[in-house]
Amino acid sequence: MNAYIFPGQGAQFSGMGLDLYENTPMAQELFENANEILGFNITDIMFEGSAEDLKETKVTQPAIFLHSVILAKTLGDTFKPDMVAGHSLGEFSALVANGTLNFEDGLKLVSQRALAMQKACEIKPSTMAAVLGLEDAVVEEACNTIEGVVVAANYNCPGQLVISGEVEAINNACEVLKEKGARRALVLPVGGAFHSPLMEPAREELAAAIENTTFNTPNCAIYQNVTANAVNDASAIKTNLISQLTAPVRWTQSIQQMIADGATLFTEVGPGKVLQGLVKKIDRQAQTASATTEAKV
């Protein structure tokens, strides 16, 4: 069974999407449409912007979404997913790919999500840290002993868990986790505490936008971050998507469930190969691939 997976924030690079724009009329049209919807020329930043320009949350999230979604659309008849999943922001790309959301609504929601998260980040100094080489349960337990907000946020693969919370709590947690034998506990260069209770203001703001958006019945199951299970019901997808900003990304569990449900090939659609690497760490036997632009429309 073909599983298609969609990356989240961090996969961006300067020049992303330019080959699609130059080689495929349909891609060009979608990119121009995106510039209009967003009210600024995101294509200029994607194609020619610096790494610094691309780091801005209001740019990063729509840029990765556009690269993934437009790439999927240019695959034409070769794009036949049996199941999909997306890492954090990538869940929105996956929902356009499986027909739950249309392109315009998906982009609007991603833009609103980025702006809402940016605002939430400015309320309180917060950050995230990658913890390598410890069992999930050890990290969770340590977080529970730290004063302040610090929670497990991204279950990326066995031995790689990202924690999220207040700056001081994260720094304290990193020290404790190193003492407990973490190979590394490294504060990440991110703007805030994504997938933690500190994103509650953003969740509330995004919830209103999601409630007012039409969600169609998907043409294949999506394995959502919040539950790590196959979801086919449009209203359940909505509920899970609203919870996503303050809940952990259960990527390890999602991939394990997809394999249990028959996934034989995981194709990453979008910039980079981060997710393929994680899939291999979750299950060494899993087959992975990158979507290519060869099947032009």
Write down how many β-strands occur, each being a DSSP E stretch of 2 or more residues. 10
How far apart the termini lie comes to 24 Å
Strand residue content: 15-25%
Helix content range: 40-55%
Number of helices: 13
Shape: globular
Computed Rg = 18 Å
Sheet with most strands: strand arrangement: 8-7-2-1-9-10
What kind of sheet is the major sheet?
6 strands, mixed
The class by helix and strand makeup works out as alpha/beta
Uncertain residue segments: none
Overall mean pLDDT: 94
From N to C, what is the helix and strand string?
Answer: EHHHHHEHHEHEEHEHEEHHEHE
What would you say about this model in short?
This protein is an alpha/beta fold and 297 residues long.
What does this structure look like?
The chain is an alpha/beta fold and 297 residues long. The protein has helices at 18-23, 25-38, 42-48, 51-55, 57-74, 90-97, 103-123, 136-145, 167-179, 200-211, 234-243, 251-260, 274-282, and strands at 2-6, 83-86, 126-132, 150-157, 160-166, 184-187, 221-223, 230-231, 265-268, 287-290. The protein starts with a strand and ends in a 7-residue tail after the last strand.
